[in-house]
Amino acid sequence: MESSDLKKAGLKITLPRMKILEFLESSKIRHQSAEEIYRSLLNDGEEIGLATVYRVLTQFETAGLVERHHFESGQAVFELSEKGHHDHIVCVSCGKVEEFYDELIENRQREVADEKGYHVTDHSLTLYGKCPDCRDS
Amino acid sequence: MESSDLKKAGLKITLPRMKILEFLESSKIRHQSAEEIYRSLLNDGEEIGLATVYRVLTQFETAGLVERHHFESGQAVFELSEKGHHDHIVCVSCGKVEEFYDELIENRQREVADEKGYHVTDHSLTLYGKCPDCRDS
DNA sequence: ACGTTTATGATACTGAGAACCACTATCATT
DNA sequence: AATGATAGTGGTTCTCAGTATCATAAACGT
Fold first, then answer.
1. How far is the CA of A49 from the C1' of D12 (A)?
2. Which among A66, B75, B96, B102 could disulfide-bond with B91, CB atoms 3.0 to 4.6 Å apart, if both were Cys?
3. Nearest by CB to A123, which of B91, B118, B128?
4. Per residue in A21-64, pLDDT tens?
């Protein structure tokens, strides 16, 4: 399952790449930083270098296996791009990340860019707010 | 003009703060990094420290005089918040930044968040693409 | 003008991420 | 299955944006 994903992406099958992919696929947390992924793998008893984690995640991103997001935390977080495109809503209290997709917003973005003569290659939309659980705090 | 802005923001009137505000108000480039602002002030013959530029920009941001944006370049850029809210479209080739405001998108964002039970405090929407001048390159 | 308080700026520090490089693993070929 | 060319690994160093420290200097109420 995993190894075929790697081959499709034109990447050689190596232990670190397998481990990282497996970890991302099995983790309940969808959005994690390179450091967090690294720590988790170490805790799982894997021998892996931080540099490798950064390198592999960048390769995965280039291959389209993974998406990198820059929320306001400063450090990038990565998520498996198994789902289609979506945007994010981040809780400013607890840091929870939810995903959403809105056809109307997507289309309007393209229109706005077209009006200005731009050819959009990418966009990032992130909403920040308090999630239901954090509304009182 | 400028000093009253500072007083309103609850900030003491100091030379560095004046210089930075004046620079931002007179610069034709609306979106600049702390380092760029620092360099420009040095070139203008001002004596100012990089630490002060960072410090003052953060104070300005807190006071609402300035907005900080994290585009994909890695370093933050600052802009005077004289205009109302708006989003950005960034050229991936030349780095040019344009602004836009779309009522439809704004409203829809609020609706999407409401549906999920979030109270939105902020959002960031940035489109990336090629501007008309860079379409061929 | 004076003295307290706050700001400045040179420098050291931090933390995320990339670069380097000697060593190791992968895999096509034999 | 052994080989060797190629690509990957991981420890470490480096870079770069931004922050903390602290001795000095400027701001402003009295």
1. 11
2. B96
3. B128
4. 999 999 999 999 999 999 999 999 999 999 999 999 999 999 99
